[in-house]
Amino acid sequence: MKELSNFRESLAELMSERDLTHISLGNKIGVANPTVHGWKTGKHSITLSNALKLADFFECSLEFLLGRTESKLNYTPKECPPFYERLKAGMAENKTSWYRLVKDTAISNGNITKWKKGADPFVDTLLNLAAYFDCTLDYLVGRDR
Fold first, then answer.
1. Which fold has domain 2-65?
2. Residue-wise over 77-100: b if at least 16 C-beta within 10 A, else e?
3. Is the pTM of this model over 0.85?
4. Per residue of the chain (145 residues), what is the pLDDT tens digit?
5. Does the domain spanning 83-141 belong to CATH 1.10.260.40?
């Protein structure tokens, strides 16, 4: 997916700007070094909670972190509500049913059930949902409301 290669590029640039290694970044955000290395090389998918840790640390939007905009941050981030609650709100705003969401996005009912129980979605799924709802990632997760 193009956006995830943009993420790898953005992450490398942000790390370079602050002269950070995988180890130092991992220590600063509380993530294991192999995980950070895996994000940078594309071997590991990134979850929403870890993407938020990075965005907060680098003081940027998820849109910037994922390479979807050149604007680093043009709002004050808000604390994100649980993802499932935000998804329900987005669906209500867009007058979308669970059936329609699953059918149109190919997101499984199993994932939705996991999110309802508090599981963390992966960023590639969030990209899919942001495109479906025609919104930014930050708006989708409640960081920019």
1. 434 Repressor (Amino-terminal Domain) (1.10.260)
2. beebeebbebbeebbeeeebeeee
3. yes
4. 556 778 999 999 999 999 999 999 999 999 999 999 999 888 989 999 999 999 999 999 999 999 899 888 888 899 999 999 999 999 999 999 999 999 999 999 999 999 999 999 999 999 999 999 999 999 999 999 7
5. yes
